Amino acid sequence: MKNNIKQIIIDSLISIGIACTLFCLIGMVFDQIGHGTFSLDGYRFTKMVLGCIGIGLGFGVPTIVYQDQRLSRATQMTIHLGIGLVAYTAIAMSLGWMGDPGHPLSFFAIFAGQIALALGIFLIFRHYNLKEAKKINDQLHKRDSR
Prior knowledge:
The chain is mainly alpha-helical. The chain is built from 4 helices and no strands. Helix 1 packs across helix 2 (44-60) and helix 2 runs antiparallel to helix 3.
């Protein structure tokens, strides 16, 4: 149990770091697009940082499902991404990151781009973890062959 909690904390801190890094990079892009007029009044910056932390937790905490070997890998990924994307969508909508719901095409394009980014990050981590698992399996196979 202690190991699970430690892993959840590590995974959550990594997720929070990714969310905050993306917030900063995307904020820089909007600042450049707006020629320095990017403004965050009424505690919007604080709300957005707290939103980033919430999104990081929304993707980091559900990684606990990977500790349950009774679930298939597809089920684990569905639970992890399902919880993370629901948390992300709720926070993004509450912070106004989804564009204007009154313009459905713009709203959908922003939503699709943000979901694609989340899935891209997930696939990068999945690829890294599969490579690590293969490396470990190869080392174990070499050790057992001796």
